């Protein structure tokens, strides 16, 4: 029998067959309408005489309306809401046409109705019910045969709004998907206990119970506007109960306005670390960037590239993308070239350590605003190569800042790091020295020098999340330096937007500190990533502790102990009050430090860095002996 059904479903019935079946359904509906109209009694003689003509007229109208509207051309097993709406319109239109003929008949033949009005109404309702229900029955039978309920995985949809219903229908219509929706969860108490398309709606407190009772495999979050806090709460409940969490994308990303199951993806760890969207003062930012020439160094990096994308929104005159990394810069060029509203831009391959090359860039393009994001950023790499940190992070910053002053740039925005606070490593110290230089230079320059500090950004090159993902893909283990290590995280767009906001509000000389939210324990991050992928720690993936790397902190700081902050109009941006230096005081010392590169004496270089930044105390490093 099962094979017979399968053979039947392999072929579609000819379209003319569907047309005649629909007409037959209408004939049955008309017959039933007459029977009900006369209460199963004999029909009056006048009505009986006109009965053949009644059938010819009504069925003729139905047949013609079906042929014109092409209701018979749809594949019955895939009947959708659009098909039911079309059937509704066609049946109602046909019944109205019959009523019109009835009216004309009464007018021409002095009050005679060739078919009782009550019959027309009953016929329309019965025809509508039978045509729609027959299609839905065939559809339900088809999906049950293709995917028996016992072979399906149980799914819970979080969100009983329009998006949740669309998600359920998406699961229902795809024969290849073996999921069965067993319940909706919604925070709206008015919906609790109600049924949506045969599925009951429960409160959020029932989620753990619903998971256990139905042995659910997945929870799909289908709320279009959901706070990140709420998303984390849902994910925590699901992960505690060892089931995976899927996420429905925003409606704007649906293909041609329709949701596809392939778009429903597993929730990512980045989704749980994000925060609510930043509110920017768009008018102020636009007044600073519109019609300006903007130079971005490190434009092929994580922050530099996002800064370039964000700047495009504010109609600059031209954006100059400068980097020494050829292939990533080429990718940026292709990306900008493919934009629908392609901005005026130019890519520049240059090394910020090369003064002559940079001078030519400034002399040729004369940028109004400079975003300096070029830097070496990996702590262990710079701990082993202190001389290189001097050339790029200090000399490179000095070169760009000096030329910004020389060629009259309006603003210079320096992208710094939280590792510059009470530095315990060479990289952090080099960024702090760069901060000192540009802040002191700003005192004698017409260019407004502004510094921004923030912590780790999600998804940046070399950050912990891509590394953990790669280790999981390879079967593990996940390596963490210390069980207590914590970090602050911010998304790349969020960090870039705050840089633009700080740049627009800066008057020169400020060090802006971003609100990074709550610090995250790295081991908790790793465990959550394992659970999100449906794995178990210790069984599928293990976590190994490798010990702190040279120069690494357990806890990152955004302000030094001796610093305090001042609020700004933006709740996520503070002004750090730091020790200030005079330009004449630090210029010679920093030039001496840069000149020490030629000695290639790491201890001498680091000692001079410590002399300039007394709070620089090495941690877990060979340079700790210099602090003694």
Write a structural description.
Helices cover 47% and strands 14% of the residues. With 628 residues, the protein is of the alpha/beta class. It has three domains: 2-146, no CATH class; 149-267, NAD(P)-binding Rossmann-like Domain (Rossmann fold, 3-Layer(aba) Sandwich); 283-624, Rossmann fold (3-Layer(aba) Sandwich). Strands 10-9-8-11-12-13-18-22-21 form a nine-stranded mixed beta sheet, sandwiched between helices. Strands 3-4-2-1-5-6-7 form a seven-stranded mixed beta sheet, sandwiched between helices. It has a two-stranded parallel ribbon with strand order 14-17. Helix 2 (15-37) crosses helix 5 (117-146), helix 4 (81-108) packs antiparallel against helix 5 and helix 16 (426-441) crosses helix 21. The longest helix is centred in the N-terminal third of the chain and has 30 residues, at 117-146. The mean pLDDT is 81.
Neighbour order of strands in the largest sheet = 10-9-8-11-12-13-18-22-21
Give the CA-based shape.
elongated
Q: Helix count, per DSSP? A: 21
CATH topology of the largest domain: Rossmann fold
- How many strands, what sense, and barrel or not for the largest sheet? 9 strands, mixed
Topology:
Elements: H1 2-9, H2 15-37, H3 45-69, H4 81-108, H5 117-146, E1 153-158, H6 162-173, E2 179-185, E3 195-196, E4 199-202, H7 207-214, E5 218-221, H8 228-240, E6 244-247, E7 265-266, H9 269-273, H10 282-289, E8 293-297, H11 302-311, E9 318-323, H12 326-337, E10 345-349, H13 355-365, E11 369-372, H14 379-384, H15 386-406, E12 411-415, H16 426-441, E13 448-453, E14 456-458, H17 464-473, E15 478-480, E16 486-487, E17 489-491, H18 492-505, E18 511-514, E19 520-521, H19 522-532, E20 543-545, E21 564-567, E22 573-577, H20 583-595, H21 602-612
């Amino acid at each position: 029998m099962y094979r017979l059904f399968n053979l039947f479903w392999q072929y579609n019935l000819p379209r003319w067959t569907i047309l005649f079946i629909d007409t037959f359904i209408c004939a049955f509906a008309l017959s039933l309408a007459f029977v009900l109209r006369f209460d199963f009694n004999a029909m009056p003689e006048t009505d009986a005489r006109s009965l053949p003509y009644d059938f010819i007229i009504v069925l003729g109208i139905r047949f013609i309306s079906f042929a014109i509207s092409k209701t018979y051309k749809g594949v019955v097993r895939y009947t959708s809401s659009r098909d039911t709406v079309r059937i509704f319109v066609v049946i109602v239109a046909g019944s109205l046409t019959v009523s019109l003929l009835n009216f004309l008949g009464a007018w021409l033949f002095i009050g005679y109705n060739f078919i009782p009005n009550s019959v027309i109404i009953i016929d329309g309702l019965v025809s509508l019910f039978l045509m729609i229900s027959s299609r839905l029955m065939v559809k339900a039978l088809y999906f049950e045969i293709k995917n028996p309920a016992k072979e399906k995985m149980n799914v819970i949809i979080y969100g009983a709004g329009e998006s949740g219903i669309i998600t359920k229908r998406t699961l229902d219509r795809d024969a290849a998907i073996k999921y069965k929706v067993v319940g909706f969860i919604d925070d709206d108490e008015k919906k609790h206990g109600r049924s949506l398309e045969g599925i009951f709606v429960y409160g959020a407190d029932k989620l753990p119970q619903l998971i256990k009772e139905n042995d659910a495999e997945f929870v799909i979050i289908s709320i279009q506007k959901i706070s990140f806090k709420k998303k984390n709460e849902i994910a925590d409940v699901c992960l505690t109960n060892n089931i995976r969490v899927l996420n429905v994308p925003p409606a704007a990303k649906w293909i041609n306005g329709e949701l596809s199951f392939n778009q429903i993806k597993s929730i990512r760890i980045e989704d749980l670390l994000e925060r609510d969207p930043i509110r920017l003062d768009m008018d102020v930012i636009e007044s600073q960037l519109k019609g300006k020439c903007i130079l971005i160094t490190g434009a092929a990096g994580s922050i530099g590239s996002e800064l370039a994308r964000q700047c495009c929104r504010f109609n600059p005159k031209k954006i100059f993308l400068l980097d020494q990394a050829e292939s990533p810069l080429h990718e940026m060029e292709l990306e900008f070239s493919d934009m629908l509203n392609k901005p005026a831009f130019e890519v520049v391959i240059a090394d910020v350590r090369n003064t002559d090359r940079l001078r030519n860039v400034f002399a040729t393009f004369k940028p109004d605003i400079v975003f300096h994001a070029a830097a070496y950023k990996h702590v262990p790499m710079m701990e082993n190569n202190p001389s290189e940190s001097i050339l790029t992070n200090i000399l490179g910053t000095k070169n760009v800042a000096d030329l910004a002053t020389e060629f009259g740039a309006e603003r210079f925005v320096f992208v710094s790091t939280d590792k510059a606070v009470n530095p315990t490593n060479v990289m952090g110290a080099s960024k702090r020295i760069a901060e000192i230089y540009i802040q002191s230079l700003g005192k004698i320059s017409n260019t407004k020098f502004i510094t921004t500090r923030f912590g780790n950004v999600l998804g940046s090159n070399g950050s912990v999340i891509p590394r953990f993902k790669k280790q999981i893909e390879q079967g593990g283990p996940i390596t963490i330096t210390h069980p207590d290590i914590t970090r602050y995280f911010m998304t790349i767009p969020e960090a870039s937007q705050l840089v633009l906001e700080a740049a627009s509000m800066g008057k020169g000389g400020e060090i802006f500190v971003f609100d990074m939210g709550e610090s995250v324990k790295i081991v908790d991050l790793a465990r959550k990533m394992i659970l999100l992928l449906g794995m178990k720690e210790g069984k599928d993936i293990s976590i190994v502790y490798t010990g702190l790397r040279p120069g690494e902190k357990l806890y990152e700081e955004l302000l030094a102990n001796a610093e305090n902050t001042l609020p700004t109009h933006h709740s996520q941006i503070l002004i750090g009050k730091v020790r200030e230096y005079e330009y004449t005081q630090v210029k010679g010392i920093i030039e001496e430090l840069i000149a020490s590169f030629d000695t290639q004496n790491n201890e001498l270089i680091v000692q001079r860095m410590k002399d300039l930044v007394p709070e620089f105390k090495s941690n877990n490093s060979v340079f700790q002996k210099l602090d003694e």
